[in-house]
Amino acid sequence: MAGKPMLEGKVAVVTGAGGGIGREIALMMAMQGARVVINDLGVSVTGDGGSATPAEQTKAIIEQRGGQAVISTDSVASWDSARNIVQTAIDAFGRIDVVVNNAGILRDVIFHKMTADDWNAVINVHLNGSFYVSRAAAEHFRKQENGAFVHMSSTSGLIGNFGQANYAAAKLGITALSKSIALDMKRYNVRSNCIAPFAWSRMTGSIPAETPEQKARVEKLKQMTPDKNAPMAVFLASDAARDVSGQVFATRLNEIFLMSSPRPIRGVHRADGWTPETIAEHAYPALKAAFMPLDRSGEVFSWDPV
């Protein structure tokens, strides 16, 4: 049933909005009434180069559809430039209500071959970038006693994947950052949630497709277009989600999942304490049955999306 746009009157910053998931979120937020700051450097998947063209394309689409948007080409990966991103919203629209931390790069490589640069580049954009932009916006959210953060996590961090130690560490770190923001800023009516999106985009274009099994998997992934993740982002940014905070959702084609957070699953107690020997003899056998398997995201989400 048609009604009032869910984000009417709100101002949203969407990082990495020049393409893929970020663009689709920016477009849907604009269609739902938000004025949008499109932040994008126009770099390659690995973070090289730079161009304003992707952000300009997103802006053109929003304006063609009757929405309002401005562009920021500042990097999320430093304190000062992240503050510039938020200031762009204040300068253009007078306020900020929503931050979507979506910007990201990939430097996939097997762990024992990963360089310090591979590690730092990914951590700086994903984890540090999410902190810097959120921290800059938090000052405004606190003053107005309202605001919403939507961070992009990944099942690579929540579950695991090959060749992505940097990316997985950053994405799991983002879930802890989000929970901490939710706890610290609850008193100011500020909410913080994560989405672990499934989508075929240039960020997943490097997935191997050599064997028949790999090719079949890639074909399934291609069904999961980036726009399938936008509705959850819009919902979490809206007042309809005023009671939702500190949660992690996964969006997969037409499926939505609420992901668990680590909790104690089995415990053992010994009145006189533990020694390495008694751990080996008693604790280990008692706990072993509840050990988490060494599985990957694709093995946990093993069924075909429909």
Automatic annotation (TrEMBL):
InterPro entries: KR_dom, NAD(P)-bd_dom_sf, Peroxisomal_Beta-Oxidation, Sc_DH/Rdtase_CS, SDR_fam. Coiled coil: none annotated. PROSITE patterns: ADH_SHORT. SMART domains: PKS_KR. It comes from the Bacteria. Residues 10-206 form the Ketoreductase domain. Pfam families: adh_short. Belongs to the short-chain dehydrogenases/reductases (SDR) family. This is SDR family oxidoreductase. It comes from Limobrevibacterium gyesilva. The lineage of its organism: Bacteria, Pseudomonadati, Pseudomonadota, Alphaproteobacteria, Acetobacterales.
